[in-house]
Write a structure and sequence with these properties.
- The complex is a heterodimer of chains A (about 290) and B (about 240).
- Chain A is about 75% helix and about 5% strand.
- Chain A has helices spanning about 1-35, 40-60, 65-90, 100-125, 145-170, 170-180, 185-190, 195-215, 230-240, 245-265, 270-280, 280-285, and strands spanning about 135-140, 145.
- In chain A, strands 1-2 form a two-stranded antiparallel sheet.
- Chain A is globular and about 60 Å long.
- With about 240 residues, chain B is α/β, with parallel strands linked by helices.
- Chain B folds into 2 domains: about 1-80 and about 155-165 and about 175-235, 3-Layer(aba) Sandwich (Rossmann fold), CATH 3.40.50.300; about 80-155, no CATH class.
- Chain B is about 40% helix and about 25% strand.
- Chain B has a 6-stranded mixed β-sheet, sandwiched between helices.
- Chain B is globular and about 45 Å long.
- In chain B, about 45% of the residues are buried.
- Classes of the chains: A mainly alpha (about 290), B alpha/beta (about 240).
- Chains A and B meet through helix 6 and helix 7 of A and helix 2 and helix 3 of B.
Chain lengths: ~290, ~240
């Protein structure tokens, strides 16, 4: 009975953690799926979001939920800056994104990743910091559920579902989906490809940085310049699990990974749980390269 | 007069494909461009829609010089195309593809009306509205591509090889629909390999060969089969 309770609570916590993972992965998915940029510096932008939440808390008393909103707004600017400084030269006038372009952006974002994490050491020191935020708990049967984690889960689901509705229901959202399938045809229906691609990138960064803020609730003392090295691979695994370019796939992939990690943690050391979770990538790529969602 | 192409030359990299091509379309008329493979028909259309830059020459549309206007901006002015290979968005539904056709500001407010017009023109598309475009048959895809172009409420409709890869029985249907659209007031520029059939419907035609306009005229003027045959078989 106790064991069952442990499993059930791990399952629940895993799903909640998975929702937050899904947010950061969703940001990556948008950029990967639409402008075909495998952003190696993805983890560093999560880190930026987390530090954003930290400083907003220290200097403004913001809780991570509020910070996620501020980070999300900042992320729009960061995303546009990223697009026009890194991607525009490479994508401008292209009728399809070639493998060569993908390699160029992959390698340059790798450089960006190293630059950002090292700069962060200088700017923020290498110390682990955290945000003190505990809005209490709520009793759920045999479980004491921390409210902070619950709020974060709700906001995470809200962020993903809003972006999915935006992509499905608006003209510009549809154009983003269209761009990911055929750039030429997107132009021929009258959509400005630069506007569409830059908006997709901005949205991706906005969601990534908001996700970085939400993550701080799960890692109370774990904000550090190298945190990207863990969360970037997690995001990549989730996107591959869900299928690149499939927006609801991020949520399903995130839930899967969160549950796998949390349930495994009950039996094996934490780092081994992550190792096994990353191992999932291999069978998925071998047997379902299009992702677990059909 | 809607479209006026004056002496355009262009190519890819170092290779010149078009040499001094001029053509025009009139309101409420079907202009057809025929010629063998590699004559430069699709490249001509690419310069007209704005996907291909011209080296020399000028493209005018409704009195505006649009030579250097990007492709997406030309749609707002009333130019729409069903491109070579249809270029539907395979993962969007048929209706999703059609709705995106109304992307430009001019067309958005009347998107619902346009949609029901397209559905009455191509009832098959209504049946297939929630099917992913990638799963449509060749003929259905062509209808969807024309439908998507019509959703932008164009004054000039550009069709690149609408008969390609389509069952013969459907080709006639598509040509007849095109003729109907012309009667509705559209100016249509159509490229076809299927020259004899296309000329039956055309008001005016251009024969392209090796990147040049070989001859132009009304279909009866071009009925001179020798001329057409030359265009098709005299490739060196």
């Amino acid at each position: 009975m106790v064991a069952l309770a442990v499993i059930l609570s791990d399952l629940l916590f895993g799903m909640m953690l998975g929702c937050v993972f899904a947010v950061v992965a969703h940001g990556l998915n948008l950029i990967w799926g639409v402008v075909k940029v495998v952003n190696i510096a993805h983890g560093e932008f999560i880190m930026l979001g987390a530090y954003g939440a930290y400083f907003l808390n220290v200097f403004g008393g913001f809780n991570p939920l509020l910070s996620a909103v501020v980070d999300g707004a900042l992320g729009i600017f960061v995303g546009y800056a990223f697009y026009f400084s890194f991607l525009h030269r490479e994508l401008r006038g292209k009728e399809r994104i070639t493998l060569r372009s993908e390699m160029v952006t992959l390698v340059s974002t790798f450089g960006l990743s190293l630059f950002m994490s090292n700069l962060a050491v200088v700017a923020f020191t290498g110390d682990f910091v955290g945000i003190n935020w505990s809005p209490g708990t709520v009793a759920l049967g045999f479980l004491e559920l921390p409210l902070g984690a619950l709020y974060v889960t709700i906001l995470a689901v809200l962020i993903i579902s809003t972006s999915v509705v935006f992509l499905d229901r608006t003209y510009i959202g549809n154009a983003i989906k269209a761009y990911s399938q055929d750039i030429t045809a997107t132009q021929l229906v009258g959509a400005n490809p630069t506007k569409v691609a830059s908006l997709a990138t901005a949205l991706g960064f906005s969601i990534t940085m908001a996700g970085g803020a939400l993550l701080t609730v799960w890692i109370p003392t774990g904000i550090n310049p190298y945190m990207g090295a863990l969360y970037a691979p997690i995001s990549f695994v989730i996107v591959v699990l869900g299928g690149p370019g499939k927006m609801l796939g991020s949520l399903l992939g995130g839930l899967t990974l969160g549950v796998v990690i949390d349930v495994l943690q009950a039996f094996v050391p934490v780092s081994l749980a992550y190792a096994v979770a990353f191992l999932l990538l291999i069978p998925v790529l071998l047997f379902r390269p299009e992702g677990i969602v059909k | 007069m809607t479209l006026l192409v004056e002496g355009i030359s262009t190519g890819y990299g170092e290779t010149q494909v078009l040499y001094d091509v001029s053509l025009r379309t009139e309101d409420r008329s079907l202009t057809v461009m025929v010629g063998p493979n590699g004559a430069g028909k699709s490249t001509t259309l690419r310069t007209i829609t704005g996907l291909q830059r011209v080296w020399r020459g000028r493209v005018g549309f409704d009195g505006n010089d649009i030579t250097s206007l990007p492709a997406f901006a030309r749609v707002e002015l009333g130019m729409a195309s069903a491109p070579e290979g249809r270029r539907l968005f395979p993962l969007l539904t048929t209706e999703g593809n059609l709705r995106l056709g109304a992307y430009c500001r001019r067309a958005r407010d009347s998107a619902e009306d346009s949609l029901s017009q397209v559905y009455s023109l191509f009832p098959k598309l209504k049946e297939r509205r929630s099917i992913k475009a990638g799963r449509l048959s060749g003929g259905e895809q062509q209808m969807a591509a024309i439908g998507r172009a019509l959703m932008s409420k164009p004054t000039l409709l550009i069709l690149d090889e609408p008969s390609l890869g389509i069952a013969p029985i459907l080709i006639k249907e598509i040509f007849e629909t095109v003729k109907e659209l012309e009667k509705g007031g559209l100016s249509i520029l159509m490229v076809e390999q299927n020259a004899y059939q296309a000329l039956k419907y055309a008001d005016y035609a251009y024969i392209l060969q090796m990147g040049r306009v070989l001859r132009s005229g009304t279909p009866s003027e071009l009925k001179n089969v020798e001329e057409l045959r030359k265009a098709y078989f005299s490739i060196v």
